[in-house]
């Protein structure tokens, strides 16, 4: 009897002990032509996912050969349609269908494609073409649902926090910053589409960038540092914030609430902290701070506490990015070096580091009970 009890207890104690509500993934984008390192082979991408112990991948300007490597796996894929195609799709639905025939039809549902973002920070790159964004989203949606009969892939677009959100402090005062020249509520129309199609609002959230823009923000607040005086209060709501990530997420939630759509799920399409920069003035872009930020982020997401205004937390978070490459203003963001080796000693899966300790304690308890018989 004691042996059976011992077996059952050990089996239960070895199960994962966390109940994370937020899915954590990583982004991958092809290195620019000027990169000193050649792009990794498609199989290296799937190997890197195993190295990082992650099961959600966001592909920026996806290559079908990479999508193919995830056939019959448990990895979910988030695809991004490149910015230069947005205006083409806005005026020609056949272009949307052609892209889907190349990137989705040959693989779905054998590859678990969950989301397609029409552009990434499109308003930053093509502000004069903002009126093309919603028609492009609509055309891709109609091509996917009506022409192909695929109804379980979300269609949305991704925004940069610093250009999409006006007056982010305090979070309760945040509103969307409408594109220059917009006569109607661009964000209101988009949010209506997202609600009607059960899709998510996608946003890039970089505490590092906001910290650099606003010198009054303490470094510790941006790095998830838990110190007695490391907080900021929203005096309008009485909410106390202990990290900048939550403040930025809640600013997005507040802006959506102003438009009347606060229940739409939020996905953080990019976040991270640079481990280096070609700009000598960016002393805070270093491996030590990057590891502190990533450790704090993983711990915060694994806690399941959400944010003050979003108790269930954001739906998904994607860390920018998989491999080091100088693609964002000469900064290094990679979780892995170009050769695929780990840069940080972090369990990105978010599983509890106390699982092994729990198993040992359970074993000792059972041994003690057996000795009492």
Features:
373 residues, alpha/beta, TIM Barrel, eight-stranded parallel β-barrel, two-stranded antiparallel ribbon, 14 helices, 38% helix, 17% strand, EC 3.2.1.39, glycosidase, hydrolase, glucan endo-1,3-beta-D-glucosidase activity
Strand content: 15-25%
The first-to-last residue Cα distance is 10 Å
Largest sheet data? 8 strands, parallel, barrel
Helix proportion range: 25-40%
CATH architecture of the domain at 2-11 and 22-160 and 177-200 and 253-271 and 309-372: Alpha-Beta Barrel
Q: Helices and strands: which structural class?
A: alpha/beta
CATH superfamily of the domain at 2-11 and 22-160 and 177-200 and 253-271 and 309-372: Glycosidases
Q: CATH topology of the domain at 2-11 and 22-160 and 177-200 and 253-271 and 309-372, which one?
A: TIM Barrel
| Strand order across the largest sheet | 1-2-3-4-5-8-11-13
Shape: globular
Quick rundown:
With 373 residues, the protein is α/β, with parallel strands linked by helices. It has helices at 2-13, 42-52, 64-68, 86-91, 93-103, 122-125, 133-147, 161-164, 186-196, 207-213, 219-222, 244-259, 287-303, 355-372; strands at residues 23-29, 56-60, 76-81, 112-120, 154-160, 165-166, 175-176, 201-204, 232-234, 239-241, 266-271, 276-277, 316-319, 331-332. It has a domain at 2-11 and 22-160 and 177-200 and 253-271 and 309-372: TIM Barrel (Alpha-Beta Barrel), CATH 3.20.20.80.
Describe the structure.
The protein has 373 residues and is of the alpha/beta class. The protein has helices spanning 2-13, 42-52, 64-68, 86-91, 93-103, 122-125, 133-147, 161-164, 186-196, 207-213, 219-222, 244-259, 287-303, 355-372; strands at residues 23-29, 56-60, 76-81, 112-120, 154-160, 165-166, 175-176, 201-204, 232-234, 239-241, 266-271, 276-277, 316-319, 331-332. It has a domain at 2-11 and 22-160 and 177-200 and 253-271 and 309-372: TIM Barrel (Alpha-Beta Barrel). It has 14 helices and 14 strands. The chain has an 8-stranded parallel barrel with strand order 1-2-3-4-5-8-11-13. A two-stranded antiparallel sheet has the order 6-7. Helix 1 runs antiparallel to helix 14 (355-372) and helix 5 crosses helix 7. The longest helix is centred in the last third of the chain and has 18 residues, at 355-372. The relative contact order is 0.16. This is glucan endo-1,3-beta-D-glucosidase. Keywords: Glycosidase, Hydrolase, Signal.
């Amino acid at each position: 009897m004691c042996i059976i009890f011992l077996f059952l207890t050990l089996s239960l104690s070895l199960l994962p002990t966390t109940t994370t509500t937020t899915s954590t993934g990583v982004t991958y984008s092809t290195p620019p032509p000027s990169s000193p390192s050649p792009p990794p082979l498609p199989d290296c991408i799937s190997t890197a996912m195993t190295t990082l112990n992650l099961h959600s991948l966001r592909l920026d300007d996806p290559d079908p050969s990479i999508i193919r490597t995830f056939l019959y796996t448990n990895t979910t894929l988030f695809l991004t349609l490149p910015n230069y195609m947005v205006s083409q799709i806005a005026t020609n639905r056949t272009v949307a269908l052609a892209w889907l025939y190349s990137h989705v039809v040959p693989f779905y549902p054998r590859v678990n494609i969950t989301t397609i973002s029409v552009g990434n920070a499109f308003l930053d790159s093509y502000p004069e073409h903002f009126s093309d964004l919603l028609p492009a989203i609509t055309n891709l949606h109609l091509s996917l649902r009506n022409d192909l009969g695929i109804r379980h892939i979300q269609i949305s677009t991704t925004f940069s926090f610093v250009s999409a959100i006006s007056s982010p402090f305090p979070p309760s005062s945040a509103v969307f910053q409408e594109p220059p020249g917009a006569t109607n509520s661009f964000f209101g129309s988009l949010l209506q589409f997202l609600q009607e199609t059960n899709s998510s609002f996608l946003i890039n959230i970089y505490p590092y960038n906001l910290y650099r823009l606003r010198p009054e923000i303490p470094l510790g607040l941006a790095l998830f540092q838990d110190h007695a005086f490391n907080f900021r209060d929203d005096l309008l709501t009485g909410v106390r914030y202990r990290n900048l990530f939550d403040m930025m997420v809640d600013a997005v939630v507040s802006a959506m609430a102003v438009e009347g759509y606060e229940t739409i799920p939020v996905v953080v399409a990019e976040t991270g902290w640079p481990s280096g920069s070609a700009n000598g003035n960016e002393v805070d872009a270093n491996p030590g701070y990057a590891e502190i930020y990533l450790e704090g982020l993983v711990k915060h997401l694994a806690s399941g506490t959400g944010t003050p205004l979003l108790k269930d937390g954001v739906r998904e978070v994607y860390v920018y990015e998989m491999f080091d490459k100088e693609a964002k203003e000469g900064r290094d963001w990679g979780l892995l070096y170009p050769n695929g080796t780990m840069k940080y000693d972090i369990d990105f899966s978010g599983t509890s580091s106390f699982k092994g300790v729990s198993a040992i304690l359970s074993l000792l308890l059972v041994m003690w009970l057996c000795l009492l018989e």
